[in-house]
Specification:
Structural class: alpha/beta
Radius of gyration: 20 Å
Pfam families: ADH_N, ADH_zinc_N
CATH topology of the largest domain: Quinone Oxidoreductase, Chain A, domain 1
Largest sheet: 7 strands, mixed
Order of helices and strands: EEEHEEEEHEHEHEHEHEHEHEHE
Distance between the termini: 14 Å
Oligomer: single chain
CATH class of the largest domain: Alpha Beta
Number of strands: 15
InterPro entries: ADH-like_C, ADH-like_N, ER, GroES-like_sf, NAD(P)-bd_dom_sf, Quin_OxRdtase/zeta-crystal_CS, Quinone_OxRdtase_PIG3
Number of domains: 2
Keywords: NADP, Oxidoreductase
Helix content: 25-40%
Number of helices: 9
CATH superfamily of the largest domain: Medium-chain alcohol dehydrogenases, catalytic domain
CATH architecture of the largest domain: Alpha-Beta Complex
Strand content: 25-35%
Protein name: NAD(P)H-quinone oxidoreductase
């Protein structure tokens, strides 16, 4: 089978297509013939050599895929060969076939094509675990997600809107602002033109938002604290703006705030499986009835993985980039 790998960190050109040995399933695994693999920011960081993988982690890129099961391990009863599915992986989705523990596999949702389903697992698991499970977003809450035009942001806007929240988001261009509004965002803030704290406080009559989903880390933390309401929550899922921050604990205490810093890839298998159960229960019905749709910016064939990463590096994408293994 064909798969993508790289020998040393660097620019997109370090990615090469190789002939790899077809995988075999362990007792609790299935083999998926991949239709589509979603690209994530973590893939870019890993390719650059700055992701910080733990010892023993899977080195190949790709955290999510969709496709058809072609073989199941001896202990598997929930799935059979021929089932259309999507899956959350610890790595390796940039390939024609992958093995994955069956607990991390979901039926492909109604309302999306099999290829589009490859753009859903990482987004849905990230949003459900951080916005619904940890963040406790409820109908009537106000919610701010940074980077509304990205793969996580586009999903978070739709899911928060479906849950009945008032949705604020930031983005970097008027084109992306219009796109975020089309997905249901109530207030869109172009961070190149306006300060998001000023806009949030004005639009909430000084109350602030109940929940912030943040991927910027240190750069935005002090202002996120300013923009958060009493008893509000900040859930940090990325550190694109730096890892080291000075925190005003007094300001947080005055608001009885909570700050959660989380990741998905490093969680124990059982925890990731629990998250996917929540996704199937709560998010898949939204996809089926059209309240949430996979947002695919562009599709590249696997052999043009370099072009896909170059496009991702440009920062112009809206939603997910997909690698296609379909003929």
């Amino acid at each position: 089978m064909q798969a993508v790998e790289f020998q040393e960190p660097g620019a997109p050109e370090v990615l090469t297509l190789i002939e790899a040995t077809d995988p075999r399933p362990a007792a609790n695994e299935v083999i998926i013939e991949v239709a589509g693999a979603g690209m994530n920011f973590a893939d870019l960081l890993q390719r650059r050599g700055v992701y910080g993988l733990k010892p023993g982690a899977i080195q190949r890129l790709g955290l999510e895929c969709s496709g058809r099961i072609v073989e199941v391990g001896e202990n598997i009863t929930a799935f059979s060969a021929g089932d259309t599915v999507c899956a959350l992986l610890a790595g390796g989705a940039y390939a024609e076939r992958v093995t994955v523990d069956a607990s991390l596999v979901l039926p492909a949702p109604e309302g999306a094509s099999l290829l589009e389903a490859g753009a859903l697992p990482e987004m849905a698991a990230t949003v459900w675990s951080n916005m619904v499970d940890i963040g406790r977003l409820r109908r009537g809450d106000s919610f701010l997600v940074h980077g509304g035009g990205g793969g996580i942001g586009t999903g978070a806007i739709q899911i928060a809107k479906a849950l009945g929240a008032r949705v604020f988001t930031t983005c970097g261009s008027e084109e992306k602002a219009e796109f975020c509004r089309s997905l249901g965002a109530d207030v869109v803030i172009n961070y190149r033109e306006s300060d998001f704290v000023d806009v949030v406080m004005r639009e909430t009559d000084g109350a602030g938002v109940d929940l912030v989903l943040d991927n910027m880390g240190a750069l935005y933390l002090p202002r996120n604290i300013e923009a958060t309401a009493v008893d509000g929550r900040i859930v940090m899922i990325g550190v694109q703006g730096g890892k080291l921050a000075e925190v005003d604990l007094g300001a947080m205490m005055e608001k009885r705030m909570s700050l959660h810093v989380t990741s998905l890839r490093d969680r124990p298998l059982e925890e990731r499986a629990r998250i996917l159960q929540g996704v199937e229960r709560d998010i898949w019905p939204m996809v089926a009835d059209g309240r949430v749709r996979p947002i695919v910016d562009r599709v590249f064939p696997l052999e043009d993985v370099v072009g896909a990463h170059e496009h991702a590096e440009s920062g112009v994408q809206k939603g997910k980039i997909l690698l296609s293994m379909l003929p």
